[in-house]
Amino acid sequence: MVTDLRGETAADVASQIDGHSLEVDVTDSAAVDAAVAATIARCGGLDIMINNAGIAPPFNQERFQRTVTNEILRMSGDLSSMEPLEVLSTMSNEDWDQMIRVHLYGVFYGCRAALRHFQPRRSGVIVNISSVLGLRPSSAAPHYSVAKAGIIALTKSVAEEVAPFGIRVNAVCPGWVDTPLLSDFDEQARQIIRNRVPMGRLATAEELAELVRFLSGPESSYCTGEVHSAGGGYA
Ligand SMILES: NC(=O)c1ccc[n+]([C@@H]2O[C@H](COP(=O)([O-])OP(=O)(O)OC[C@H]3O[C@@H](n4cnc5c(N)ncnc54)[C@H](O)[C@@H]3O)[C@@H](O)[C@H]2O)c1
Fold first, then answer.
1. Each residue of 137-164: b (16+ CB within 10 Å) or e?
2. Does the N-terminal or the C-terminal CB of the chain have fewer CB atoms within 10 Å?
3. Which residues have a catalytic role annotated?
């Protein structure tokens, strides 16, 4: 069962894997509960829950240029000429809330709905998608970093609770992955990312999917409450 805020996106992925799809907003707890119920009704059960929905702060070209200029000034030791980036001081309540809602509340609702089904059966697997920024917060995206760090804490907390009952819960921390999430990053921004990553490139979605598949299957039977990074050497 593939779900997404955009029904056509979910349907497109489902058609590639001969699956089913549903339009679901993960910030709506009743919708997440209903999606799990619909999955069980249509597929005969739920074995694996991947909590993957996410958003990124819009790319801000002007702030990005200031970051680049500041870095050059920092390297020359001229901190007094650096301009404040004003990321947190200009952030609206709405932007903060939305970032926390989609990531942290979305994963909470997803874990809760899955556990209500997994616990009586004493089996099940949950994979929560965090980020390397949850391990190494970014000054450019404090709300995203906080939400992703929260997902790591939630994963460890829930994993400890349900481990005796045959349920595994793990987190994946991708580095930069070449997906539509980064579609508004221009070539200069991508090059700066490549410079930061020891492997010198972005990941492909397939490389992350392999890790999620490993954590979803019997090969990872002794892994729970763990944080698995795939950051090309970053974090
Ligand atoms: N791409 C990266 O560089 C990167 C790095 C680290 C972590 N991640 C994380 O990986 C996950 C997948 O991201 P991606 O890179 O495939 O991006 P993506 O934009 O391709 O996919 C994210 C999907 O989440 C959906 N979504 C957004 N808000 C939603 C909501 N409220 N309810 C349901 N669906 C919603 C979007 O419609 C989109 O299809 C996200 O959690 C993201 O934070 C991505």
1. beebbbbbbbbbbbbbebbbebbeebee
2. C
3. 144
